[in-house]
Amino acid sequence: MLVNPTRGYHWSDAETRALLTIWGEHDVQTALDGNFRNSHVYRDVAGRLGDMGYDRTPDQCRVRVKSLKRQYFQAKKASKKNGHFAKIFRFYKDMERILSSRSSAGLDAHDMDGMGAEGDETLDGTEEDGESVDQPHESDVDAAGECSNMEYPVKIEYPPYPIPVTVGSCSNAPDVPAKQSEEQTSTMPSSSGSRRHKKRFANLSLEKLMEKFLEQSLEAEENFYRLEEQRLQAEDLRRETEHTREMHMLQMLGQMFAGLSTPTVTSSTAPQSTRNSKTAPSVTHARPYGGSQSLQTSQVDYANPSPPAAPVIERTYSLGGGAHRSMDILPLVKNIIPPLTSKKHKGQDGRIGVIGGCQEYTGAPYFAAISALKIGADLSHVFCTKDAATVIKSYSPELIVHPVLDRPNAVEEIEKWLPRLHCLVVGPGLGREDKLLNNAKEVIEKSKSRGIPIVIDADGLWLVSKEPSVIQGYQRAILTPNFMEFTRLYEAMHHQALDSTDLRVTVQQLSIALGNVTLLLKGEEDIITDGNQVLTCSQEGSGRRCGGQGDLLSGSLGVFSHWAFSSSLNATEGMNPTLVAAFGASSLTRQCNNQAFHKYGRATTTTDMIQEICAAFMKLFET
């Protein structure tokens, strides 16, 4: 077993006093003073102890002397406060006698008073090999100067021969009874007993923590909603103020234009206009916004329409381009949306009919009908051919499919359902077969006689380009052409090539030629006009143009048309309901396209857009 050679051996009082007697001799103190290499001095001290019968090594002697000096300086420092510590250290007087003589020899007493454990090196210097030797901590040394908490096991060796003890060699040092020392040691305050116990706090239970967290969350949520409500009220007030200011400006402009004289037609063009008017067909015009009663006739030159008597004030609205006037239309769209209440019955919010669907095209009528349901219609009917019925039914069980469009009595079969329908969408997947086009034409005539709003798209526009009279003058109709379909309609009505430099003007001209039928030209910006007003919807969409996107527009437009015509004049603030409906459907379709494109990119399809209808509708009209 390894034993530390410099510590851990028990020093008896006799050995300690013998060591102090030798260490306190004049020649030893003289050798230690001013000599930093003192290993030879402690070898001499150990040799003298051996002569006295105590077998100790030089390192053990040096460590013991350092321990005694440390205890002495601690006792001397403490004695200035209470005067008792000097009595506890039994070798205090011996150390006082030796060190006081060294102080008188040249060591300042003030320096000795301030020395602690580090003062040993000042008195005795460093070791010869230059390395420090481990010293026991003061808390590990008891009052007798021994190690009470030894790090290594102790091996006590006894010499094989008896040790002679010279009693007279230590007689000059007063002895302190061991019993008295033990009693005084027992009276010393324990450092461990004086420690203050840490105050422990009871932890809160998990239920209380969760309850407190929920209370704070509810409070924060209430504050958020209160601030949001204040913000919305301020925003509504700002919109009302801007709307009032714009209406005032428009009234001023109207008064200015009313004072202007109406431009007259030059004599060179008058004969031509007269000649054309003689050959122009006579058509019926419904009263504003498509009233079904009090019809009146008038002669209109559709090949060369004359300019309106009063200038047309063009108003442009935009959602995504930064213009703020779109906020004038969005509140109108929100006004026509019926609230969801438990007092309504099935079918009250919309029963939409779709005329279309043949063997080649089964997806288009499905997209239009399912879009109407997703927006808020209660029932959606599809009148298609027998070959397409089974396929369309397999797409969705929510649709009511009628396989009657190619029957000989198709018009009679569909006419039975017209009293139950609120709007008719004609064209998605209709095809260009003459039989189907003729049936669609007769169904349109039956619907016009009942004043049902009609949305015409796709192959229905092909029918209108061939026979414009089928829809001409019916102001409850909305046409939704793309650029190619619009070009075909324009050339059919004006018998000249389309000038696409200013599409707003040409769209307005075509609407006037059709008897102020509302047009929605799909493109980079959707242009909407009834011949009197021009709206532009530039809600942000995407560059992706997938098949079926127009069917989503036509189906949603059918629902918005029913809502617009079912609302009061105050809800639309006197604006043509078809314009409000077209603007709402256009904004919703473009928003669906934008959201789907952000998720799927180039892979976006109409099915992806239909899945975004709910989120887009809430974002635009319910927030």
TrEMBL record:
<dbReference type="InterPro" id="IPR029056">
    <property type="entry name" value="Ribokinase-like"/>
</dbReference>
<feature type="coiled-coil region">
    <location>
        <begin position="210"/>
        <end position="247"/>
    </location>
</feature>
<feature type="region of interest" description="Disordered">
    <location>
        <begin position="261"/>
        <end position="292"/>
    </location>
</feature>
<keyword id="KW-0597">Phosphoprotein</keyword>
<comment type="function">
    <text>Catalyzes the dehydration of the S-form of NAD(P)HX at the expense of ATP, which is converted to ADP. Together with NAD(P)HX epimerase, which catalyzes the epimerization of the S- and R-forms, the enzyme allows the repair of both epimers of NAD(P)HX, a damaged form of NAD(P)H that is a result of enzymatic or heat-dependent hydration.</text>
</comment>
<dbReference type="InterPro" id="IPR000631">
    <property type="entry name" value="CARKD"/>
</dbReference>
<keyword id="KW-0067">ATP-binding</keyword>
<feature type="binding site">
    <location>
        <begin position="482"/>
        <end position="488"/>
    </location>
    <ligand>
        <name>(6S)-NADPHX</name>
    </ligand>
</feature>
<feature type="region of interest" description="Disordered">
    <location>
        <begin position="106"/>
        <end position="143"/>
    </location>
</feature>
<dbReference type="InterPro" id="IPR044822">
    <property type="entry name" value="Myb_DNA-bind_4"/>
</dbReference>
<dbReference type="GO" id="GO:0046496">
    <property type="term" value="P:nicotinamide nucleotide metabolic process"/>
</dbReference>
<keyword id="KW-0520">NAD</keyword>
<comment type="similarity">
    <text>Belongs to the NnrD/CARKD family.</text>
</comment>
<feature type="region of interest" description="Disordered">
    <location>
        <begin position="172"/>
        <end position="198"/>
    </location>
</feature>
<keyword id="KW-0521">NADP</keyword>
<keyword id="KW-0456">Lyase</keyword>
<feature type="binding site">
    <location>
        <position position="551"/>
    </location>
    <ligand>
        <name>(6S)-NADPHX</name>
    </ligand>
</feature>
<keyword id="KW-0547">Nucleotide-binding</keyword>
<feature type="domain" description="YjeF C-terminal">
    <location>
        <begin position="329"/>
        <end position="620"/>
    </location>
</feature>
<feature type="compositionally biased region" description="Acidic residues">
    <location>
        <begin position="118"/>
        <end position="132"/>
    </location>
</feature>
<dbReference type="GO" id="GO:0110051">
    <property type="term" value="P:metabolite repair"/>
</dbReference>
<dbReference type="Pfam" id="PF13837">
    <property type="entry name" value="Myb_DNA-bind_4"/>
</dbReference>
<feature type="binding site">
    <location>
        <position position="429"/>
    </location>
    <ligand>
        <name>(6S)-NADPHX</name>
    </ligand>
</feature>
<dbReference type="GO" id="GO:0005524">
    <property type="term" value="F:ATP binding"/>
</dbReference>
<protein>
    <recommendedName>
        <fullName>ATP-dependent (S)-NAD(P)H-hydrate dehydratase</fullName>
        <ecNumber>4.2.1.93</ecNumber>
    </recommendedName>
</protein>
<feature type="compositionally biased region" description="Polar residues">
    <location>
        <begin position="183"/>
        <end position="193"/>
    </location>
</feature>
<dbReference type="GO" id="GO:0047453">
    <property type="term" value="F:ATP-dependent NAD(P)H-hydrate dehydratase activity"/>
</dbReference>
<keyword id="KW-0175">Coiled coil</keyword>
<dbReference type="Pfam" id="PF01256">
    <property type="entry name" value="Carb_kinase"/>
</dbReference>
<feature type="binding site">
    <location>
        <begin position="541"/>
        <end position="550"/>
    </location>
    <ligand>
        <name>ATP</name>
    </ligand>
</feature>
<feature type="compositionally biased region" description="Polar residues">
    <location>
        <begin position="261"/>
        <end position="282"/>
    </location>
</feature>
<feature type="binding site">
    <location>
        <begin position="522"/>
        <end position="526"/>
    </location>
    <ligand>
        <name>ATP</name>
    </ligand>
</feature>
